[in-house]
Amino acid sequence: MxxxxxxxxxxxYNEEQxxxxxxxxxxxxxxxxxxxxxxxxxxxxxxxxxxxxxRAHGARVITHDVRSISSVRNAGIREAKYNLIxxxxxxxxxxxxxxxxxxxxxxxxxxxxxxxGLRLVTDKMLTRILVVFIQFFVEHVGGIRGAVxxxxxxxxxxxxxxxxxxxxxxxxxxxxxxxxxxxSQGKKFGLLKDVEITTIDRKDTSxxxxxxxxxxxLRVFMGHKLTRDELGYWYNPxx
Length: 239
Known about the structure:
Layout: E1 6-12, H1 19-30, E2 37-43, H2 50-56, E3 60-63, H3 69-79, E4 84-87, E5 92-93, H4 98-106, E6 111-121, H5 125-142, E7 149-152, H6 153-158, H7 170-184, E8 188-200, H8 207-221, H9 232-235
Parallel strand pairs: 1-2, 1-4, 2-3, 6-8
Antiparallel strand pairs: 4-7, 5-8, 6-7
């Protein structure tokens, strides 16, 4: 497979605190490949210095005004210059060998993309246990560990990108659609879970919070449409 470069897309809403680590670790990972590369930060109505911090760390910043994670991810896909896209969040850490391992995986020519491993960094035992159960469910449904991906741009656009009717669970919906597209081409959409992206524990993961959250996620998977007000765990404007 002829990969002409790597585009990293990072949605960001008020992420000035976490972006430096995310961008620095991604830069180190990109330095291990000879492919041309770029990092695109999609600034989604931030009220802090997210855009300035991203530019200061060498990222290309685009502004996107629709407050929907699917729409933001799609804006990044459309802007990408290269055919291999890596999509992570703005509070992640990337292993130094991640990009070269993704490149090697994709160079086999059998895959149109896949999910990556995802590990939550936390000292809370309850949170770690809850994450194990959540990841088991998400992997069973969508074959992914979380919303961290690598994929070919044309194939992502071929399925219409991330489903913009989904305010959450867009990652599983995307993975399922990409698997179907891969099968139609005699290929695969895989899971490279030993390339482990880290993310931090920054939300309320108490039992009181997770119980209602689990019910909402189940409703989304069953086809119910919830409003941003109902999904404050993800769309809280004070975050």
